[in-house]
Amino acid sequence: MNKLPTTLVIDLDEIRQNYRIFVDLVGADCTVSAVVKADSYGLGMAPVAAILHEEGCREFFVATPEEGAELREVVTDSQIFILNGYYKGYEADYAHYDLIPVLNSLEEIERYKTGSCILHFNTGMNRLGLSVDETQKLLEDKTLLDGRNVEYVMSHFACADEADNPMNRQQFAKFTEIAKHFPDVKKSMANSSGAYRSSDYHLDMIRPGMGLYGLNPTPEATNPMCETVSLEGKILQIREAKKGETVGYGATYTFEKDTMLATVALGYADGMLWSLGNKGQLFWKGSALPVRGRVSMDLLTVDLGNIVQNDLPRVGDRLEVIGPHQNADDLAKAAGTIGYEILTALGLRYERIYRYQAEVKTLDSASSISS
Description:
Blueprint: E1 6-11, H1 12-26, E2 31-32, E3 34-35, H2 37-42, H3 45-55, E4 59-62, H4 65-72, E5 79-82, H5 91-96, E6 99-103, H6 106-111, E7 115-120, H7 132-140, E8 148-154, H8 167-179, E9 186-188, H9 192-197, E10 205-206, E11 229-241, E12 246-247, E13 253-254, E14 259-264, E15 281-284, E16 287-290, E17 300-303, E18 318-322, H10 328-335, H11 339-344, E19 351-356, E20 359-362
Helix pairs in contact: 1-3
């Protein structure tokens, strides 16, 4: 079969380099784990975890036991932590795949009778983690932990992407007070952004996710990470819209002059969010091509008016969606969202190409990699 109309290139060497950046940032006394949940933020858990393991990563975080079981097929000698806790009905799977739960409540602690675990304390995020009352009960009666091997105590920043948000220090102070009660247990709090806010936050382990995949952990400054993704969409048709005509569902854009358009094989089913209608842009040789009209499930239309007439693309040419002129964070800003959603929404209909040690490999995202 011929190549699919949309090409997603994932640079594993740049993901490797981003891991090295975090290692250099925190130094030898702090472990750098890797958050590879949600199929490594949409980029493919198996090849991403394999390259990180090759680089020396031995601590991985996923959200669910299903993800943990999938990851265990790739990394056989590493610790796999389940962020969302100790799922009822999956107890045998935790044991079989050697999955370590992040315990988020006294109820989970009580059910998890024995084995390695992480204790998660809520310091202000108010999603998961032991509440203030539960924390007090646990600190007053440490026998509740008998039989459990607590490898880490952890919490999670709510506002680390905001450099000057006072909640960062407030949360860290709360966690520090709790952690004093576990002097012989390792500590972890920082995500990608937290790792850049203060060396105080590094503790014994950081848990980067988005930074590994090239998203900016310091939105107020130049991105310190390497870009890891490029995405191109194929032109299916070029047409001229006349002055006064409209384009797309709902006729949300009316042309003020005769305009050349390109219809691209890319839509919200491929991760090009519906909110990019009349807001987003693609690129041709550096020229911005505004999206005109709504994004459809499989198609979108761009305005070719910024291109000189003798350099127009043709049917079959590919336009830049994510690349040198627009990264995932830029595309997210246009869509009114965050880079996380852009990456995790990347569709399954792409031809996925993995770059690895100057080679190019077309892989199923469930495949492992080899040099």
